[in-house]
Design goal:
mainly alpha, 81% helix
Length: 86
Amino acid sequence: MDFDLLTRKFLHNLQENRFVDIGVREYIQALGETLGSFKPRTQTEQRRLAVAKQQLKEIKRHTKKLQEKISVLEEQVSVLEENKEK
């Protein structure tokens, strides 16, 4: 992963006031890739990295559940709005 290129693109978009709508999944994916690029040198670092990866997995799981709940709630709101219009 070319962090220099990524930084340059971000700064360019910042100067141009153009922002890509980045969602939680994209942030989680980027964080996972970052964690995957670390090379622990000691047992302590290995354990900390393993804990961080496990926590990220739990965050993914909870995020998925929240997205599902949001979808259900949005559907319920649209049904309520339709009933209100009648």
